[in-house]
Specification:
Elements lengths: L2 E5 L5 H13 L5 E3 L13 E9 L2 E2 L1 H9 L9 E9 L10 H11 L3 E2 L4 E5 L10 H16 L1
Parallel strand pairs: 1-2, 1-3, 3-5, 5-6, 5-7
Antiparallel strand pairs: 3-4
Length: 149
């Protein structure tokens, strides 16, 4: 199953999660920063996993723009999953998280959600990741892959 992990990252935390997800799925899985992700590659992908840090309850603009550029129906027959990084503060829940918004965008483009979006905790505005989050990301990735098969 050809898998592609696309991510946006500011302080490197989301990139670390994306790398852990890619490595857990397989050594040949491309893990690509959203600005370098060529939309024409989507045609050959079976599973697309996209993630971004949560800013103001949604993904940052680079991920939002990339998602908008995906042609309607381009993800038909493809499995998709979404993740984000977020701070664990209770009040942040008021605005929501990036993973759900990414997942909805991917579904609107025709993707079949393999699993609900997942959030990984950053201990402060710039990190680091909460202890154990890289391992949790790897486990989540394996569950996504299993659900997509």
């Amino acid at each position: 199953m050809k898998t592609w992990v696309i991510y946006d990252s500011v302080h490197g935390n989301t990139e670390k999660i994306a790398q852990a997800i890619g490595a857990a799925i397989g050594a040949d899985v491309p893990v690509v920063r959203v600005g370098d992700a060529d939309l024409s590659e989507l045609a050959s992908v079976d599973l697309l996993i996209a993630g971004a840090p949560t800013y103001g309850g949604r993904p940052r603009e680079p991920m939002q723009n990339w998602l908008k550029q995906i042609p309607a129906g381009a993800l038909e027959g493809k499995h998709v999953a979404a993740f984000d990084t977020r701070i664990g503060a209770f009040w942040v829940r008021i605005f929501g998280f990036a993973a759900g918004k990414i997942a909805r965008s991917l579904e609107q483009k025709g993707g079949k959600l393999a699993m609900p979006g997942e959030g990984f905790i950053v201990t402060g505005g710039e990190g680091p990741l909460k202890e154990g989050e890289l391992e949790r990301a790897a486990n989540w990735a394996k569950q996504v892959l299993e659900a997509a098969q």
